From TrEMBL:
Pfam families with a match to the protein in the record: Glycos_transf_3 (PF00591)
Protein species of origin: Demequina litorisediminis
Glycosyl transferase family domain segment(s): 3-211
Key words of the record: Amino-acid biosynthesis, Aromatic amino acid biosynthesis, Glycosyltransferase, Transferase, Tryptophan biosynthesis
UniProt key word Calcium: no
Entry annotated with the keyword Iron-sulfur: no
Name the UniProt record assigns to this protein: Glycosyl transferase family 3 domain-containing protein
SUPFAM superfamilies: Nucleoside phosphorylase/phosphoribosyltransferase catalytic domain
């Protein structure tokens, strides 16, 4: 698994998972720890090889219940439903679906974004290339590999490597930053203006070494 290849233990008890939020500012809620019945469903999901209802339930049953979240969806039909449920839960979010079916934002094509704020949902369009000045890329430019290969790619990005993967990481990090709307420039203005500010915050986190430091401290804390 990707995070394991980065040195992060996932089989921690629930209390330790909660403590890591305060200690290092990041944590991971492993479904098989928080929802033990998932160990029975997981093998069947893998055998089916197609999206199931768990793809919808996952982001809605996050045990942390964050006040703000960014969710990539692989279904145009389901995306507004997800946004509506999150609005009913009283949370803020950006839910997005790329025109080519990707459940992330990328310079491969425009995307539809459902912004959840103040209990309402607004449907918007976002073109990472035309609106944000990102490079036009193909899916092959950001295609991953094995967990260990992806870990190498992730470390390279955190070490400051440039290119399509970095831009895609910045773009999706910006979505989470804009959903949270607490950093300068992310709470008001058009979506493009706020995403531009979010990308700037994400760039500074990587280029300052702060993001790499968090990963290092996170991995060490899970192994302690």
């Amino acid at each position: 698994m990707f995070l394991v290849s980065l040195g992060v233990r996932l089989d921690l008890p629930v209390e330790r998972v909660k403590e890591l939020v305060d200690e290092v500012g990041i944590t991971f809620c492993f479904a098989q720890v928080f929802h033990p019945a998932m160990r029975f469903a997981m093998p069947i999901r893998k055998e089916l090889g197609v999206p199931t209802t768990f793809n919808i339930l996952g982001p809605l049953t996050n045990p942390a219940q964050p006040s703000a979240t960014a969710i990539g969806s692989s279904s145009l039909r389901v995306s507004p439903v997800l946004a509506g449920v999150i609005a009913e839960q009283g949370r803020e979010a950006l839910v997005f679906y790329s025109d080519n079916g990707l459940d992330e934002l990328a310079g491969t094509c425009p995307a539809t974004v459902w912004e959840v704020r103040g209990g309402g949902v607004t449907e918007l369009r976002l073109d990472p290339v035309a609106d944000l000045g990102l490079s036009a890329i193909s899916i092959d430019d950001i295609r991953g590999g094995t967990a260990s290969e992806n870990a190498v790619i992730a470390r390279a990005v955190l070490d400051g490597s440039s290119g399509p993967v970095r831009e895609t990481v910045l773009l999706n990090a910006a979505a989470g930053i804009v959903a949270d709307a607490t950093l300068p420039g992310t709470s008001s203005g058009t979506l493009v203006e706020r995403m531009t500010a979010g990308i700037g915050h994400a760039e500074r986190a990587i280029d300052s070494g702060a993001a790499a430091s968090v990963l290092q401290r996170w991995a060490a804390a899970t192994q302690a």
